[in-house]
Every structure is written in structure tokens, then in C-alpha cells.
Amino acid sequence: MLDLFRKFNVLQIDSISSPSTSEWREIFTVDPTATPFQSPEWMCAIEKTGHFKNKSRLFRCSKGRVLLPLAMHSSIFKNRKFSSLPHGFGAGGFISDFELVKNDLISILEALNNMNARELSIRPNPMQISIWPDPHACWATTKRISHVLDISSGYDYIWKNSFHSKKRNRIRKAVKLGIQIKKGNDAAILNQFYSVYLRWSEIRAKQRNLPSAPLLWLARRREPKWKFDAVARELGSNLQVYVASHGSLLVAAAVFLKMGDSAVYWRGASDIELTRKFPGNDLLQNEMIRDACESHCSSYHMGESGGVESLMRFKKDFGAKEIKYSEFSLK
Cα 93–95–100 angle (5° rounding)? Predict the structure, then answer.
């Protein structure tokens, strides 16, 4: 009887192959938890950077189809190193055209053990953490924390019930001070975002009494401009750069992604000295959350905070909930 029970609770994998773009888009469209990071356009952008190859896998199963966005490093020194997704490109993990359960993922993870991979890591969508199994003997885990805001109730409800009162006051102050918000996805506004990012890096170096030149070199290496250019080209209007300014001063900037039922605050930077007087970051978040609500998204992903308490508090004050989850790496 126990063997019969196991038979009907184990996902039967019929085949594993490379997905076509049309199949990928079909699955992405029907999965309510899918984020822009799991879209075919995002993987195309990753590949267009020239540093990675698309090695995504499609599992045809007894229940339907499961897809894992997967990239392989193209460098000869990192050959056979797979990740879902590469560092700096967000969380990957599985999407499907049926509702996944824990036993399904156990079967798929076992199938991935047979890949000819030197390294394989999966950082899952935090919204799916409840269905991820406990660490398996073949997999090591790294603890992570992300923040996600439920926006299914609409902007007016979130403004009144999710935003902390001090956030509402800072947003009102930003409007009163005349801070302007503009958005777009052309080269000019991408350049503005990147200049704010480099300014943030420069101020951080000054605060630590470190020379700015090597810190700026590291900043460009950590967040290269080509990454943002590649993603903007592939996502089109699904990527918007928001810039907060006061007169001619660039106060803060952020990159916003929106596809399917999910929106993402992907990257943000600010002139730390200016934000002491002009709360541009708060106004940016307000406008991106409003945009996500008006697009009928149900979740707004604010990402990880690297354990920085002030950044975690910033996200919590907008009502985002802390989600603890794990990245899986094949031993």
C-alpha cells in the first residue's frame, strides 16, 4: 500500500529538453508566481551580454510542464558552471503550467543531479519557498532573506494600511519640496541612473576614508553598465528607470521591472548627501508601487538587502514582508 501511495505522489518526468521561446512564454503566462526574472526576454538579455549561454531546461511531466531558467558561464575558466540565475540577475527557480508541490520538486532536483555540471546553483523565487524541500544530501544551501509586498488589494488600501505613517509623511514632504519624478527606458535615462549609482559609490568611499578611484572601479565591475543596457534592449517598456530630481540635482534613481502578475524593484541608488534633505527614495518607491498596482500586479518584489538593517527597515516600512529562503547548490 505504501509503494502504491509513493507511486501516485512521485512526479513522472517523461523528457527533459531545451524549451522553445513559445513554450516558455506559454508557461510564464499561466504561472501566477512568475517574475520578470523568469521570462524568456530576461534570459535573452542575459545571453546578449555575451557572458552566458542559455541552457534552460524544460521538463515534460505526468502533470504538465516545468521550466527552469538556467544560464551557463561562457568563459572557458567557468565552463560547465550553471546558475539560475547568474549573480546580479535576480532569482530564478521553476515555473510551471500546473501547481507544483514539494514532491514534484524533489523529483526534479533528483533529475538535475544527473546533469554534467561542474557547479549548479538555484536561487528560487521567494514566493515559492513553501514548496521547496528540505536540503537533500546532494545539495548544499545558503540562507537568504528577501522582501515582498502584497499589492493585490490595490494602491489606496496599501497607502492606508501597509505604508508606515512616517513613509506617508516623507512622501508628502517630497511632493511639497517639489521633487520631480520622470521615467523611461532610453539611453539618456539609463545614463542618469548609472551616474547616480557611481555617485553613491563615491560617497560611500568618502564615508569610509577610502580612495574613490579603486572603489569606483569595483562599482563598475560589480554592476557593469552593459548589464543594464542589455536588459533594457530586451525588455522594452517592461523595464522603466525612475529618476527623482530637485531642479538640476539627481537625488535618486531606480530600475523597475513589470511582467505578468509581478513587479520588481531591481536596482536603486541615491545621492546619500542629497537624500538627507530631499526624500527622493521614498517618492520613487511610492510611484513604482502605484505603477505596479495600476498594472494589476499582485506582488511587488523588493529583493534582498544583504543583511543591512537600515535597508531592511526601509522595505518593511512600505509593508513588504520578510521571506526567509535558501539558495540550493549541487555539491
Answer: 100
Q: Which residues, other chains included, contact 222 with Cβ-Cβ below 8 Å and sequence gap of 6+?
A: 88
Round the average pLDDT of the chain to a whole number and report it. Answer: 92
Cα(126)–Cα(224) distance, rounded to whole angstroms? Answer: 25
Q: Which residues contact 229 (CB under 8 A, 6 or more apart)?
A: 187, 190
Closest among 251, 235, 279, 248 to 193, alpha carbons compared: 251
* H and E: helices and strands count for the chain: 12, 15
Residue type, 185: N
The cell numbers describing 229, all together, are 543596457
Give the model confidence (pLDDT) of 161-190 as tens digits: 999 999 999 999 999 999 999 999 999 999
**Widest pairwise Cα distance in the chain:** 74
What are the angstrom distances between the C-alpha of 15 and each of 48, 57, 112, 189, 242? 28, 10, 12, 44, 43
Q: What is the DSSP letter of 20?
A: P
Question: What are the start-end ranges of the E strands in 193-330?
Answer: 239-246, 249-259, 262-270, 299-304, 321-330
Q: Model-level pTM?
A: 0.93
Under a CB-based contact definition with an 8 Å cutoff, are residues 298 and 150 in contact? yes
Q: Are 69 and 42 in contact (CB under 8 A)?
A: yes
